[in-house]
Amino acid sequence: MTTHDHQATAEDFHAVAALYDDAMEGNNSVHDLVYPKVYGEGEYVGQFSDNSAGELLAMAAAMDLPPGSHVLDIGCGTAPVAALFADRFAWRVTGIDVSATPLAKGRRRIADAGLGDRVRLVQGEVYQHRFGQLFDGAYGTGAFCHFDPARLFARCAALLRPGGRLAFMERVRTGEFTEREWRHLTSEWACPTVSTTEEYRTALTGNGFRVEEVRDLTATFRDWQDRSVVVRRELRDEIVALTSVEYYETSVRLADYENAVTKAGKLGYALVVATREVG
Ligand SMILES: C[S@@+](CC[C@H](N)C(=O)[O-])C[C@H]1O[C@@H](n2cnc3c(N)ncnc32)[C@H](O)[C@@H]1O
Questions:
Q1: 9-14-15-17 Cα dihedral, nearest 10 degrees
Q2: Atom 4 (ligand 1) nearest CA
Q3: What average pLDDT does this structure show over 216-245?
Q4: 148-159 confidence digits (pLDDT tens)
Q5: 97: pLDDT strictly greater than 50
Q6: Which residues contact 117 (CB under 8 A, 6 or more apart)?
């Protein structure tokens, strides 16, 4: 059996759902406190990926899809990106996520923004859910790390119309990790792997996609990581008031750790845009 014909079960994504439903819950309020200061004025819209709103909009622009296009947000979380794209690009967005807690927040976000006619959120698992239609585009922000690339891209090829666009922004492996670093970046975060851009290219071309663009975003990723440590230290008292001293210390240690791996040249960040081949 290849990875492509493996039938996914809800069990496969149990660890992911547990991570976002339970472990990340306290994280949400800290995230909302820290990231407006990390990204700067107007650049935080609630996103859980390592991107400013400007970078998210640049990804959508690179997808080059007209208003009214129907686009799938894979691993939409609390749906900040779905809301942003539906609003700015007049796309119709279907967001799917396995985790109930972020989706509940997403549903409130969409209702509050009056975007209910453009954004539909479904709780489900992307391999199994029957969407009942083909999409003009699909994207993931901070979500594709939870998937095996070849298996995910085979599924995306089946969900997109010929000529449809796929885009994602994700961490990429740019050096050799120690065993501890690997464990920390993969199994501890319910991620099967950290791919290189070449591995992403191979998985895309092997599954019916033409790669249009691979944009290196490592320089800004480094800035976000640096700022995420600095801002946490500045906001120590507020973070402790929201959570606990232990939470604060763990959160700074984790942010510092990833920062060090990135500074060592082992972890980068990329935007990838591809087109579903015709035929
Ligand atoms: C880091 S969050 C990113 C959320 C959102 N894209 C954003 O930028 O704020 C990753 C999300 O992917 C979801 N996810 C992971 N595996 C999934 C799967 N197989 N099907 C649907 N959602 C999945 C998780 O539940 C989580 O909410």
A1: 120
A2: 77
A3: 95
A4: 999 999 999 999
A5: yes
A6: none
Edge to edge, the sheet with strand 92-97 lists: 119-123, 92-97, 70-74, 135-141, 160-173, 267-276, 209-216
Is there an atom of ligand 1 within 6 Å of 48 CB? yes
Report how far residue 273's alpha carbon sits from residue 164's, in angstroms, rounded to the nearest whole number: 11
Calculate the alpha carbon distances from 132 to 74, 78, 128, 135, 199 in Å: 16, 23, 12, 10, 30
In a 3-state reduction of DSSP, which class is residue 206? coil
Task: Convert the pLDDT of each residue in 44-79 to its tens digit.
Answer: 999 999 999 999 999 999 999 999 999 999 999 999
Residue 85 one-letter amino acid: F
Q: Of 261, 183, 178, give the one whose Cα is nearest residue 226.
A: 261
> How far is CA 199 from each of CA 113, 269, 270, rounded to the nearest angstrom?
38, 14, 12
Structural domains of the chain ordered from first start: 10-276 (3.40.50.150)
Query: From ligand 1's centre to the CA of 143, what distance in Å?
Result: 5
Instruction: Please name the residues in contact with 228: beta carbons below 8 A apart, sequence gap of 6 or more.
Output: 34, 35, 38, 255, 259
Sequence-distant (≥ 6) Cβ neighbours of residue 274 within 8 angstroms: 165, 166, 167, 204, 209, 210, 211, 212
Residue closest by Cα to atom 18 of ligand 1 = 125
Ligand 1 midpoint to CA 74 (Å)? 7
Residues 190 and 143 sit within 8 Å (Cβ to Cβ): no
Which residue of 97, 123, 127 sits with most ligand 1 atoms within 8 Å of its CB, as the best mutation to test the pocket?
A: 97
Tracing tokens 């997109």 back to the chain, one arrives at 160
